Amino acid sequence: MATATTSRLLRGMKTNDLISWNTVIGGLAMHDRGADALNLFIQMKNAGQKPDGITFIGILCACTRMGLVEDGLAYFQSMVHDNSFVPQIEHYGCMVAPLARAGRLEQAMDFVRKMPVEFDGVIWAGLLGACRIHKNVELAEVALQRLIELEPKNPANYVMLSNIYGDAGRWEDVAWLKVAMRDTGFRKLLGCSLIEVNDAVVEFYSLHERHSQREEIYGVLRGLVMTLRLFGYVPDSRT
Fold it and tell me: Given 13, 120, 151, 178, which is the most exposed site by the fewest CB atoms within 10 A?
């Protein structure tokens, strides 16, 4: 339905220039209509409109949000070899994230090494998180080292690597990392959630005990945990 709507929208325009195509493709990709974005990309090429780097950001984003790692790689290669575009940091970022989540960490690191510009902390933090999921301690240490250089005041990065060490049973490294984190002089911020209640935004902090409705809130949470456990849920207490 979305493809039909966007097709009518494009047909209704006096001129379907590159900006029009890119706007619609990017909008579809960002709103989880990746299949529609890819279909529109085919229509765009059939209409004789050549894509540019922005077009491929939308296409790679669509593949990333749909978990289409192989398709994303194919589009990336097409961008470079068939269209002679030089990838920018946005294009590399669209490839590193899905590769890392899929457990293809070495391949993700290969993209990092080929980058002509230094990745920002968001990409390295994503790699660090993927390293925990896939239990890759060596690459996690590399990611933390880069994050220390980019975000020296962010203690959350130390906590993530500490959790990775704990998962691997490397308790001496956990202890060392806690000392290193303490030496930075920064402390991990408490987890915080914000919800809207009766037209007002209410903040909830982890382990917060001063809220006026504390007993009712924790009572509801205990009920939810009990219900989840009835269905086989087992909480991960290592974090």
Answer: 13
Tokens of 205: 């902090």
79: its two tokens: 């961008």
* 3-state DSSP helix/strand/coil % of the chain, to nearest 5: 65, 5, 30
Instruction: Take residue 101 and report the two structure tokens written for it.
Output: 């989540």
Q: 201 — phi, psi (to 5°)?
A: -90, 125
Residue 16: phi, psi to the nearest 5? -100, 85
Give the end-to-end CA distance of the chain in Å, rounded to a whole number.
43
Calpha distance 15→19 (Å, rounded): 10
35 is written with which tokens? 């299949």
Among 10, 109, 82, 47, CA closest to 56: 82
pLDDT tens, 1-49?
Answer: 455 566 566 665 556 788 888 988 998 898 888 898 999 999 888 888 8
CA distance 75 to 88: 14
pLDDT tens-digit readout, 113-132: 887 777 778 888 888 888 88
* Nearest in space to 168 (alpha carbons), one of 101, 238, 227: 238
Instruction: Mention every residue, 6+ apart, whose C-beta is less than 8 A from residue 146.
Output: 119, 124
8 Å CB contact between 155 and 181: yes
